[in-house]
Amino acid sequence: MSMNRRNVLKSTIAALAFSAALPAFAADPVNLGVSIPAATHSFMGGINYWANQAKKDLEAAHKDLKITIRTAANATEQANQLQDLSSVNKINALVVFPFESAALTRPVANVKAKGAYVTVVDRGLTDTAAQDAYVAGDNTAFGKIPAEYIAKTLGGKGNVVALRGIPTTLDTERMDAFTGVLKAYPDIKLLDAKFANWNRDDAFKVTQDFLTRFKEIDAFWAADDDMAFGAMRAIEQAGRKDIKLIFGGAGAKDMVKVILDGSDPRIGANVSYSPKFIYDAIKLTAEARLKGEKLPATTIIPSVLIDKANAKDFYYADSPF
Fold first, then answer.
1. pLDDT digit string, tens, across residues 216-227
2. Please, what is the average pLDDT of the chain?
């Protein structure tokens, strides 16, 4: 064998040995933006807590992962932050919890158009082409379970009012499921349903209006526990004794504690919808993108009835929500 051929062979063997030592797949670094509403109420406090916990845990576990979190007080601020995440932070993946569905659809679509992988959480967009994946709780069950419980507890007859969140696809899913169940109970009358923005103070004001206009109310449904607590304050202040049932939602620890203790006969159940799903969405997205993979188009986290029998499984004393 000539010296030249021998040198070529040695070089080839060395190159093969080096390539064999490399991992089978070398993923690109992931620069993940997380865009969420600010902690304006307890549930969003939980969302913020779990998002920051995900950043801490995942960045420690993956050296090729950087997570940037932005919180917004309104839809306009969130839209501006999304633009900055894309153009300034140069993200290549996004997990976004939209402040509002319609207002955020175009800003999210713009991020996706620049090449970022987009996971939308909880509040869906009005155009699903703006996203790659959707992660949420079961909003149909979230509305259906309270309606079934209220109908059963009232014996299929009574007056009900509802406190909605803000105009989003999520809220629409919940309300449609709630009213869908009540259609089977012609003797249950839904007196009114108004938006209270998932906020205690707004729920307090809306409830005051309900209590002024309706002299007999048997049950309140609040599509969030913060709103339920606001309603309870207004009911107590008005001295109303006709309300037999108050059903909130999402399993806030203070509400679950009431169920556990049996301290308020009007509150016997709730429905699960943990803010921890933001942690799950960030983890799923980050780890999929680190592997160069995609998530399923839709991932739904089940919502279940919380009552005296299982409340201990949903009580987290150290949680902010």
1. 999 999 999 999
2. 91
Q: Tell me the H-state helices in the chain.
A: 3-21, 42-61, 75-87, 101-113, 139-153, 169-182, 200-213, 225-238, 253-261, 277-290
3-state secondary structure at position 93: strand
Same domain flag for 131 and 147: no
Q: pLDDT at position 9, please?
A: 34
Task: Output the pTM of the full model.
Answer: 0.74
- Considering the domain architecture, whether residues 210 and 87 belong to the same structural domain is answered as no
C-alpha pair distances (Å), 297 with each of 131, 134, 168, 200, 266: 9, 6, 19, 34, 40
- Beta pairing partners, 162: 193, 221
- Looking at the structure, tell me whether residues 94 and 150 fall in a common domain: no
**How far apart are alpha carbons 39 and 73 in whole angstroms?**
8
**pLDDT score, position 320:** 76
In this prediction, residue 27 has a pLDDT band, given cuts at 50, 70 and 90, of low
In a domain, 128, yes or no: yes
Q: How far is CA 259 from CA 63, 95, 265, in A?
A: 43, 34, 9
* DSSP code, position 89: S
User: What's the rounded Cα separation, in Å, for the pair 10 and 5?
Assistant: 9
CA dist., res. 321 & res. 316, Å (int): 8
Task: Report yes or no on 10 lying in a domain.
Answer: no
Extract the tokens encoding 36.
């969420």
Q: Could you read off the pLDDT of 57-100 as tens digits, one per residue?
A: 999 999 999 999 999 999 999 999 999 999 999 999 999 999 99
With respect to residue 84, please indicate whether it lies within any of the assigned structural domains.
yes
| Domain assignment of residue 86, given as a range | 30-137+275-301
